[in-house]
Amino acid sequence: MRPTIDVPLTLDRESGVPLAVQVAVQLREAMRTGGLRAGERLPSTRGLATLLGVSRTVVTDAYQQLYAEGWLDGRHGSGTYVADEALPYEKAEGRDVRARRAVHREEAPPGMVDLRPGRPWVFGYDKAAWRRAWRSAGQLPLNAFPDPYGHPELRELLAEHLRRARAVPVGAGNVMVTRGTGNGLDLIAATLLGPGTRAGVEEPGWRAAPRIFASRGAEVVPCPVDEQGVIVEALPDDLRVLYTTPAHQFPVGGRLPIPRREKLLAWARRTGAIIVEDDYDAEFRYDVAPLPALYGLDPGRVVLLGTLSKSLGPDVGLGWLVAPAVLLDAVAERRGRLADRTSGPVQRAVATLLEGGDLDRHLRRMRLEYARRRAAIVEALGPYVRGDTAGLHVMVALPAGVAPGLVREAGERGVLLDTTEAHHHGPPRVHGLVLGYGSASRADVRRGCAVIRELIPPGAA
Ligand SMILES: Cc1ncc(COP(=O)(O)O)c(C=O)c1O
Predict the structure, then answer these.
(1) 384 Cβ closer than 6 Å to some ligand 1 atom
(2) Quick check: CB of 118 below 6 Å from ligand 1?
(3) pLDDT on residue 84
(4) Do strands 41-42 and 79-82 pair parallel, antiparallel, or not at all (unpaired)?
(5) Cα(182) to centroid(ligand 1), Å
(6) For residues 413, 414, 419 and 425, what is the CA-based torsion angle, rounded to 10 degrees?
(7) Span 91-113, mean pLDDT?
(8) List of residues 6+ apart from 65 with CB closer than 8 A
(9) Is any ligand 1 atom within 6 A of the Cβ of residue 280?
(10) CA-based R_g, the chain, Å
(11) Cα 387 to averaged position of ligand 1 atoms, centre (Å)
(12) Is the CB–ligand 1 distance for residue 178 below 6 Å?
């Protein structure tokens, strides 16, 4: 039997971070940096608990988490070992489904405060309304020939929702029901792009956009943004498609001002480019008047993409693509050939939520809750905060080089963060943190911000 190694661990009982999280964080870091190596045996849960003066559950919980992430290997009756392969992802292949999922989805370990962006609050919905929606979906006969445009009834309801909530002059004939923004963007890319075409993405921006464009054969062109959004003067003339987030730029947080919206549309008319407007975060806006969607300003040049991922949750898998009728027909034709579709029962359930006003009620509740979390961030980190007038994230501006170390240290103190540097396609040009407050409770937002405040170096504002 291989010897048990000694692990130097220190616990801070005053920090408020659960002890199991502290143990898991330190063991993970030791494995990441080589302090603990593949095949080495960890102390027994009982032995380590005694050594640390904690209950055995603390150590068992920490080990369980590291098993789930693929860092540890357990052999029945013979102890706990550091997994053989260096990469936990590779190690997880072939393991049980739970372990693989934990690695794929980068779920936060229990007890950690998760302030990473792109994660909505998925606990606040009305469970009774949800069950009603699914009862109604269950009554629908299964359709052998799913319509590539989506259910006519849901297209009608979505058009009405867009007219009401976004003042977009749209009829059902312009709406296709998708599985979300990623699906909509891919359908546009499959229809309009290919080898020899150039597609613009925001820099920094949503990382999925360049991946989707590249996977359809286009050359990806990073287009710089400033604190207001995409910089029109910097756009080249030969883009077939430009992907942009005017309602709340991800991750810098700008809301594209009207004059710049008009300039952008003039650029598209002059060059013949199609603008793909990710209407991301438009549902959530704080203390500012709504701005018209680009689609509403020029329906001939713009494709608008929307999603329920932020308002209900990405697990629902429902979004919309709004386009001029001719382009929509081309997308539907391409979609049919790719055997791509949106689940019928999901469409029926969402139609019920829209019909009964349940989605509107949910949005009103969530707006209040998110506004409070956003206020907590502004209160704690005011001078550093940018782009806080909409959406579920803000940017915390920091001098170059500060954010990566800060993220590491915050992780050790139980707070998960993300940098703006990580959302660049090329070399980083915008520096700081991108803080998401969708998936952390108000108390956790406060806790996380207190840790960030302590870690920001003096004079960094
Ligand atoms: C900028 C942006 N747009 C859209 C989405 C949602 O995409 P989907 O509807 O495919 O879940 C995300 C998710 O994180 C995002 O960051």
Answers:
(1) no
(2) yes
(3) 72
(4) antiparallel
(5) 7
(6) 130
(7) 58
(8) 20, 24, 109, 110
(9) yes
(10) 24
(11) 18
(12) no
Q: What does pLDDT average to over the chain?
A: 90
Alpha carbon of 39 to ligand 1 centroid (Å)? 39
The predicted-structure confidence for 66-80, as pLDDT tens digits, reads as follows 876 678 877 646 788
Tokens of 331: 């997308």
Q: Is the CB of 311 under 6 A from ligand 1?
A: no
Closest CA to ligand 1's atom 7: 181
Q: What is the pLDDT of residue 85?
A: 58
Instruction: Give the CA-trace dihedral at 409, 415, 416, 419, to 10 degrees.
Output: -50
Show the domains of the chain with their CATH numbers: 19-104 (1.10.10.10), 127-356 (3.40.640.10), 360-455 (3.90.1150.10)
Residue 93 has pLDDT above 60, yes or no: no
CA of 101 to the centre of ligand 1 (A): 19
pLDDT at position 330 over 60:
yes
Which of 404, 439, 402 lies closest to 422 in space, CA to CA?
Answer: 404
182-204 mean pLDDT: 98
Sorted by sequence, the CB contacts under 8 Å of residue 102 that are 6+ apart come out as 68, 69, 70, 92
Q: Which percentage of the chain shows pLDDT scores above 70?
A: 93
End-to-end CA distance of the chain: 55
